[in-house]
Amino acid sequence: MSKTDKDKFLNPISNFRGDFSPENLAFDANLQEFANRVSLICALETGGKISPNEAYQKIRDLWEQLASSKKNLLGDDK
Fold first, then answer.
1. Cα separation of 69 and 66, whole Å?
2. Position 48 confidence tier, pLDDT thresholds 50, 70, 90
3. What contacts 21, CB < 8 A, 6 or more positions away?
4. 52 belongs to a structural domain
5. Entry's InterPro entries (predicted)?
6. What residue numbers bound the domain in which 28 lies?
């Protein structure tokens, strides 16, 4: 398996669907990365590789990054 194949397997990216704009496309990519990383963190915690507190903190940090991305790309309307 080549590095590219492994990256595609470990970090799948779906095609963008919806109203196209560069901002929507960038946020969609950020959202997919967030979901993938949360899944990996959950697997690490479930497997006993990291503590529940560490998993929580990592997910919280990712959430703050995603919220900042949303604000910067799509505006601050809640």
1. 5
2. very high
3. none
4. yes
5. DUF7219 (IPR055643)
6. 21-72
